[in-house]
Design brief:
The protein is an alpha/beta fold and 405 residues long. The chain has two domains: 5-195 and 386-402, Rossmann fold, CATH 3.40.50; 217-383, Rossmann fold, CATH 3.40.50. The chain contains 18 helices and twelve strands. The protein has a seven-stranded parallel beta sheet, sandwiched between helices. A five-stranded parallel beta sheet has the order 9-8-10-11-12. The termini are close together.
Length: 405
């Protein structure tokens, strides 16, 4: 089947976890397809380039500095394979002029494509905010040209793509979503599949950790901010809105030391997928070790998963492990809606966020290690998977590829 080519269109750099999340090798080996991984971050979101430190190499990877360069490559492939033999995994999202042009080009050339749902985390409804929240949000918005520009681009190009009927042939969804019927009305075929994290879980379900951890342990899911920028450039905010590095890491150290002493376990650090640390014991974590195993593997035996607001809690949900959502005095003094959003996120799992700078209540901290399994299952159904059969995304999409004519 090497007469077909699959293009994976990534609006980011290639990260280690992507190899199993997107199952590149299965498409190559099991289906015999040629694949190309197209990295278009440089012209799609140039202000995010520096945020991706943990980039890896792949023999089928192509980087593009401009839209024109990318289009020329795809036209070359079209001449070689023909339109009907090309299938595009479009992982971009229309939120600016460049992403609009990418999707428009795909549609104009009649390439078959699949998009993936972004519904992998709870989004706080607007009625969760009070008048004070609205006031501060509005004030920040009207005084930030960057936020105004981001919102305008998102709204304008979303409506334009809707008006011009720029949509994929297939849309992979996971969990319960009210958008299914709207997508079907637009003629888009629905694939009931898995989120990236759940797909990664399925692909590593039999993998054993390389790191031999003796005794009990907890895992902290690293957040890029406030030490690094993370996604703040495309959010229109400063990394300082998530606090200062000195205060954040001092608070973390004190809290981790408290937990380690009280529960007799060791706290390990799960690095953020975008970040690469120079050594296993970064100074900001005061001697605590960075784990190298995939979070989907090493999280299975953890006594608790600690996080600020990470999608990585998916693995705690999958493995039914207690979760702690944490914040600090410094974060509570910020005039933004972060804590409201964090609280809404945590409440979906029956959890109350913890101020790690406050005096820890014995009863509350003991109750924090309780799992509301009913809410865990509900979260899994809403945000992680639409399936009961443990079929991977590859198993679902390969049927489409096999029928390409």
């Amino acid at each position: 089947m090497d007469d077909k080519i699959l293009i994976f269109l990534l609006p980011k750099k290639l990260l280690p976890k992507d190899l199993l999340s997107y199952e590149f090798e299965k498409y190559k080996k099991d289906l015999g397809c040629k694949i190309e991984i197209h990295i278009i971050l440089d012209f799609l979101y140039p202000n995010l380039v520096k945020s991706f430190q943990n980039e890896i190499y792949h023999e089928d990877l192509f980087k593009f500095k401009s839209l024109r360069e990318w289009k020329e490559r795809v036209i070359t492939l079209k001449k070689e394979y023909g339109t009907k033999k090309i299938f595009i995994f479009n992982l971009t999202f229309i939120d600016n002029i460049e992403s609009f042009k990418v999707s428009f080009f795909i549609k104009k050339n009649n390439f078959k494509s699949v998009n993936f749902s972004l519904n992998n985390i709870p989004n706080m409804p607007s009625d969760y905010l009070n008048l004070r929240d609205y006031f501060y949000s509005f004030l920040k918005f009207i005084t930030s040209t960057k936020k105004i520009s981001i919102l305008f681009n998102y709204k304008f190009y979303s409506y334009l793509s809707y008006f011009l009927k720029i949509s994929p042939d297939y849309h992979l969804v996971f969990g319960d979503t009210s958008s299914k019927k709207a997508l079907q009305r637009k003629g888009i075929k629905i694939i009931n599949g898995n989120s990236e994290d759940f797909n990664l879980h399925l692909n590593t379900i039999n993998q054993k950790p390389q790191l031999e951890i003796k005794g009990n342990y907890a895992i902290y899911l690293e957040s890029p901010t406030p030490f690094y920028e993370g996604d703040t450039p495309i959010m229109g905010i400063s990394k300082s809105e998530r606090g200062t590095p000195e205060s954040w890491f001092d608070s973390l150290d004190n809290y981790f030391s408290f937990l380690e002493k009280k529960f007799n376990f060791k706290v390990y650090i799960a690095p953020h997928p975008k970040l690469r640390h120079k050594n296993k014991f970064p100074p900001q974590y005061k001697g605590r070790e960075i784990i190298s195993d995939p979070l989907s593997v090493v999280s299975r035996r953890a006594k608790v998963i600690i996080n600020r607001d990470s999608t990585g809690i998916s693995f705690a949900v999958i493995n039914k492990i207690p979760i702690l959502f944490i914040y600090t005095d410094e974060l509570s003094q910020k005039k933004n809606t972060f804590l409201k959003r964090q609280k809404y996120f945590a409440n979906q799992l029956g959890i109350e966020p913890i101020n790690i700078d406050a005096l820890q209540d014995e009863h509350k901290i003991n109750n924090s290690f309780y799992c509301d399994y009913e809410k865990y299952e509900s979260y899994k159904r809403k945000y992680l998977t639409s399936r009961d059969d443990q079929l991977k995304n590859f198993d679902l999409i390969k049927k489409i590829i096999l029928n390409l004519q």
